[in-house]
Amino acid sequence: MRAFHLSARTWIFCATSCALSSAPGWRAPRYEAHTEVLQSSSLLFCPALTCLITTFRQMKMRPGEVLIDCLESIEDTKGNNGDRGRLLVTNLRIIWRSLSLPRVNLSVGYNCIINITTRTANSKLRGQTEALYILTKCNNTRFEFIFTNVVPGSPRLFTSVIAVHRAYETSKMYRDLKLRSALIQNKQLRLLPQEQIYDKINGVWNLSSDQGNLGTFFITNVRIVWHANMNDSFNVSIPYLQISGGYVLGFKIDPVEKLQEAVKEINSLHKVYSANPIFGVDYEMEEKPQSLEDLTVEQVQDDVEIEPGEQTDAFVAYFADENKQHDREPVFSEELGLAVEKLKDGFTLQGLWEVMT
């Protein structure tokens, strides 16, 4: 008896690490946190968080990313108050870029967003006005972003970002590995929008238990779905975006020739998907925005030198600790010789002094 293994990794969205499946030649990009000009590393995907400085290459669309809306005259009220910029809304992230200094920019992936609200903010360009608050979490640290529309009377900033984020949150079946979900109805796969079934294979054993479970494979243009014949709720949905990671799922198909045909078909569909992924975020504006390439200005290297020993943390301006209900327990600091409130994970006294100076 022969078996083949599909490996899949559940996405971990954070600022410094991300892994997802890729066909040969398709590099899985990452969002990384930096406070100085990024080197020419691989471009980004895990929709997490990149802050303040990205390269021209990182501003370009990745396969499957679509520009949905472009808003002019948007102020980054939290980190660059008084600076007018452009806000780009794609199906994977929002990008803000200063109009006066293009190298000052930030990118926020939807998957790291905890909450989006509207509240009053103090803008240098608008004064007291309604603004968009975005609370995010990355590496157990919360960041808050505040955007203000400099143009009065326009709700477009709120409607675009909130609606696209909602579309992202309701389409996770395209991107996440799912177990025991409502996938099957009357022994048939419940198709997602833009999904097509390419093959249905009966007699597939799931090797997740000692005795195995007999079930059925559905192979589509977006994912692979298996369900047990005796219990439809015992199932798994594996998007192609998750294949080739670190979580191994084993299936057995007899005879060997049928197994090899299934593997060949899955590899072929995975390669096609990798060239043009379907992320499932379906939202269109009435007015089509310009392409991101037309809106992006190539970054010009400043004629300055950065002192090697001098470091700044560009994330400091965006820190958020809104859920703090009480002070942390006091601990003795040998550096200061007195009791201080316990620092949050990842923070040091030396780092805080550097921020102040």
Structure description:
Keywords: Cell membrane, Cell projection, Cilium, Cytoplasm, Cytoskeleton, Membrane. Required for ciliogenesis. Residues 65-119, 195-249 form the BBSome complex member BBS5 PH domain. It is found in: Cell projection, Cilium membrane; Cytoplasm, Cytoskeleton, Microtubule organizing center, Centrosome, Centriolar satellite. Belongs to the BBS5 family. This protein has 357 residues and is α+β, with helices and mostly antiparallel strands. Helix content is 14%, strand content 33%. It has five helices and 19 strands. The protein has helices at residues 56-59, 156-169, 256-275, 292-295, 349-356; strands spanning 3-8, 49-50, 67-76, 84-90, 93-98, 105-109, 113-123, 127-138, 141-149, 178-179, 184-185, 188-189, 197-206, 213-220, 223-228, 235-239, 247-252, 330-333, 338-341. An eight-stranded antiparallel beta sheet has the order 2-6-5-4-3-9-8-7, with helices on one face. Strands 1-17-13-14-15-16-10 form a seven-stranded antiparallel beta sheet, covered by helices on one side. It has a two-stranded antiparallel ribbon with strand order 11-12. It is globular and about 70 Å long. The termini are far apart. Residues 7-53 and 302-312 have low confidence and may be disordered.
